[in-house]
Write a structure and sequence with these properties.
binds zinc ion; alpha+beta; 3 helices
């Protein structure tokens, strides 16, 4: 699993969220860069949106974000 390089220094590097040209593999909603990062962290072959991920893990989207921060050191993108 690829390590997120931004986790190393605790720098407050929080990229602005961007809309991507791909859709969620489950619901078809347009993905953003945060969805893509989360999908990558969880090694999804086909990216899915945050709400579909949350559903799969039976979590609220806020819980999922807290989980990513705790486990992967990923700060949610700005503008989510
Ligand atoms: Zn979805």
């Amino acid at each position: 699993m690829p390590k997120d390089k931004q986790a190393q220094t605790g720098a407050e590097e929080r990229p602005q969220v961007k809309l991507l040209d791909t859709g969620c593999n489950a619901c078809g909603k347009r993905l953003n860069s945060w969805d893509a990062r989360c999908s990558k962290a969880l090694s999804y072959k086909h990216a899915v949106c945050e709400s579909c991920m949350a559903e799969e893990y039976d979590m609220q989207p806020e819980e999922l974000r807290a989980y990513f921060e705790e486990v992967f050191g990923m700060r949610p993108c700005l503008g989510l």
